[in-house]
Design a protein that fits this description.
17 strands, homodimer, alpha/beta, about 30% helix, about 350 residues, seven-stranded mixed beta sheet
Chain lengths: ~350, ~350
């Protein structure tokens, strides 16, 4: 089969790789329906994470079950399935507590920009749809496997409540999906921080009531002005830089909450500053598995359409161009079709 | 009148000071019934916070109203009152959100180890008891003005739930009161981290079901062993050092919460580590005012007795010895009687 490999920053190659096989009785192998490039794939692409040796890429997937290991009974060959970028047995204490992305048997997916993918912990990870969804739903369901699930988690971790004010920091695919989540959770005012016209437009379409284009202190001042001087109830930090985290913490009101879902790079939080801010902070890899049944239903019933974050569709073979387009911000998110 | 002044680390003097007066129509002046020395008073006493010039000390108080400003109608002369170390108008947006210790008109108390005290924002700050409570209740009510209110906030910020497991880091007065709070909120297992026999004993009396004497990684390993390998649901961090914060964060399970209520000194939290821990972090100066009516009732009905944290009672004039005893850990907390 064929799949994407990274060799070095900026060097993505589409190559023939060994067909994945069942290695453990808890595995499944799926044939990819659609896959995509994630904002977090850009960290190594940009050299901000090291690439010590060539390795496969991709952690988002929906597809058809090809084969299952002997202990997998929850899904069967032929079914259309969705899973999280973090696999989970869904039975350990952390899974039972709803934090499947901290499963004691967690394995992060990393080979999904390919024709076929081996899914560890398949029993607890994969959720099958009722019947095979129409192709028009595949992008939305694919989004659920990571960016929509992560946006939902941002809103959940930031404790978005009905009637509240939510600020979304970051206008990438996760930030845009976070707008959807804040709206679904009943936020009355949703302020998207975005400088890009096309992303502002999509944010509004998804439910943003206000756009703040300024960043840093100026951006925070705008948020304060929109919130009676005190800051927002919830801030959804969807970037992961020190600047974005600072912006998020300063935009929240005393007693407010920041949910941070972009993997932090070079972020340190000063204890005393956090203390006097009265702001709560919770982040981590999204426990997408917890949300899957609900989010799948919202997509299948047409209530939400996170698939709109894909503004570039390419054949899987053009994966390198998919990275380039995102790196150069020509695309929000690239959908790849095997 | 007489009151305590700090001149330099280790140098507390009891001196004649000017009688406090009503300076603003929102002030009250109270005659101190009892006051005390706080663990946080030891930061400047130990030179860990600078003392640039001599200044009064003390932020915990209960007493009798002497005089009120023209805008104060909620309490009147002669009443026995309790207030928080952080004054609040109780009407601004932050107060209405329950974060009175971030009141837009907040003033921190700092002159309370004295015969008389001026209370800013008296209308929103002071709560009068029904009638004058017996002297045996004064220590408990005094504790409510800070350490018990702060222990309650630790449990609240750490989201202690009925049936859960709570760990308390720190066996000072706040940590011991945090044990009371965790018990009142229904924690099934309360693990107090303490190395001192007398404090362990009081922790058990207050509701601790387990004691862990180890610190750092060893202490965390003990917590993990007591919690099926995953950590505690809630950790109440009542110290404020980098070591204690680290211990707290590592003792919490994925999806658990740390409430941190000791003013952090030299604490920096690594963003990526916090991210992958899935632990929520909320701290700050306790919004004691929110809890006052409830905690006063719990003390007056005898349901809780946080006054037991006072294991040394001295005349106010011996305030310097009160500091010494706490600094040398001969006393948990010193009660001072004018």
């Amino acid at each position: 089969m064929r799949g994407a490999m990274i060799y070095a920053p900026g060097d993505i190659r589409f190559e023939t790789r060994e067909d994945p096989k069942i290695l453990h009785p808890t595995d499944a192998v799926i044939r990819t329906a659609v896959t995509c490039v994630c904002g977090s794939d850009l960290w190594p692409y940009r050299g901000l994470e090291p690439t010590d040796e060539p390795h496969p890429m991709g952690h988002e997937y929906v597809g058809f079950v090809e084969e299952v290991g002997s202990e997998v009974t929850a899904v069967k060959p032929g079914q259309f399935v969705i899973g999280s970028f973090a696999t989970s047995d869904n039975t350990c204490a952390n899974c039972q507590n709803g934090f499947q992305s901290s499963c004691l048997h967690r394995e992060f997916m990393s080979t999904c920009q390919a024709d076929y993918v081996r899914i560890p912990n398949a029993q607890g990870t994969l959720v099958a749809t009722d019947g095979t969804p129409g192709e028009e739903l595949w992008p939305g369901l694919l989004a659920v496997s990571d960016v929509m699930g992560t946006g939902w988690w941002a809103a959940d971790a930031a404790q978005v409540q009905p009637g509240s004010t939510a600020v979304v920091v970051g206008d990438g695919a996760v930030g845009l999906c976070a707008v959807i989540a804040a709206k679904e959770m009943g936020a009355e005012r949703i302020i998207a921080m975005s400088r890009h016209a096309s992303r502002q437009k999509l944010a509004r379409e998804f439910g943003a009531t206000h756009i703040v284009a300024e960043r840093g202190d100026e951006g925070v001042a705008q948020i304060k002005e929109l919130t009676g001087g005190i800051g927002a109830d919830s801030v959804l930090e969807c970037v992961g830089t020190d600047e974005s985290m600072r912006q998020a913490l300063h935009a929240a009101r005393p007693g407010g909450s920041v949910g941070f879902v972009g993997v932090p790079h070079g972020v340190a939080v000063d204890g005393q500053e956090l203390f006097f801010s009265h702001v709560a902070l919770r982040g981590g890899p999204a426990p997408v598995r917890r949300y899957l049944p609900d989010l799948i239903e919202r997509v299948q019933t047409g209530r939400i359409d996170p698939g709109k974050v894909f503004d570039l569709t390419l054949p899987l073979g053009d994966v390198a161009e998919g990275y380039r387009a995102m790196d150069e911000r020509r695309a929000i998110k690239t959908l790849l079709k095997p």
